[in-house]
Amino acid sequence: MRVFVIFAVCSILALGVTADDGLCPAAFPNVYYNGQYCCKSNKEKVYAPQGTQCDGSVIQRDSLCCAGDSYLKCPSGICESYRDDGAGGWSKNVGKYLGGYSGGVAKYDTLEQAQAECVKRADCGGITSRRVDRRSIHCERGSASEQS
What we know:
mainly beta, three-stranded antiparallel sheet, elongated, 148 residues, four-stranded mixed sheet
């Protein structure tokens, strides 16, 4: 789940879906490994010992490898591939925050900059912003939100 937190004291706008949705997050939209994992790429990794389930073709539910090893465990246990809800995958969660900064540059001047960078990072679970100054927008890691 990707989250944009606009702290009133704190609130979040999340990219992706909540773990209860049973869908892979928008940043890792492709389900594989029988629904247990979500892949950032729409291709399999090439790994000859796994045969046709890791041959570099389009990733499927029964694929066993993810191109670039850019994946995460399904947040709800078993997932389906992500489907866009028409909001570009971002949703708002008021009064919540994530537990730490993602790698690389963490602070951005605009929400758009932070969103563009967040979807590129495997460790970015969302974006937080303090309502007080709105100029402090950060990429955050994780997918479990906390009450603020």
